[in-house]
Design goal:
Elements (H helix, E strand, L loop, with lengths): L6 H16 L5 E4 L8 H13 L9 E5 L2 E7 L8 H12 L3 E5 L2 H10 L9 H5 L11
Parallel strand pairs: 3-4
Antiparallel strand pairs: 1-2, 2-3
Length: 140
């Protein structure tokens, strides 16, 4: 279901649905709701409670766990930009050797699986041609 004015939420729903199809049943796909959208003092109080409970500013939208691998996916609209907290989170994740990808489309999400060595039931068009897109790095 698409809703007006929520391109990132629409993308996230599509990506989660595709990942549930593409990945083995043993995979775990998790979204951590790490912000309160309620305005005013009540929202600020709730956000402070969540931060005290371990919510991390900049945490990726989705975390994928499968076959001993971890991949963090940050979903953005076509014009969306990473916040400084999101850039810092990305840098920490990459420095620790985990996978991280910026996702602006369903193809980006499926490509990130391939880029980070995840087994998938989806065949990428580039794989069928025997070529790797220049924006993708080979899996380890």
């Amino acid at each position: 279901m698409k809703r007006r004015g929520t391109p990132e939420a629409d993308l996230q729903r599509s990506v989660v649905q595709a990942l549930r199809f593409a990945l083995p049943r043993t995979a775990s796909i998790h979204h951590c709701a790490n912000e309160v959208t309620e305005a005013g003092p009540r929202g600020a109080k709730r956000q402070a409670i969540l931060v005290g409970m371990g919510v991390h500013p900049g945490f990726a939208d989705l975390m994928v766990l499968c076959d001993g691998r971890v991949l963090f996916l940050e979903l953005k609209s076509l014009k969306g930009k990473l916040s400084p907290d999101q850039e810092a989170f990305r840098d920490v994740v990459l420095a620790q050797g985990h996978g991280w990808a910026l996702v602006r489309s369903l193809d980006d999400a499926l490509g990130a699986l391939a880029d980070h060595g995840f087994t998938s039931r989806v065949v990428q068009p580039d794989a069928m041609k025997g070529t790797v897109a220049s924006s993708r790095r080979p899996a380890p």
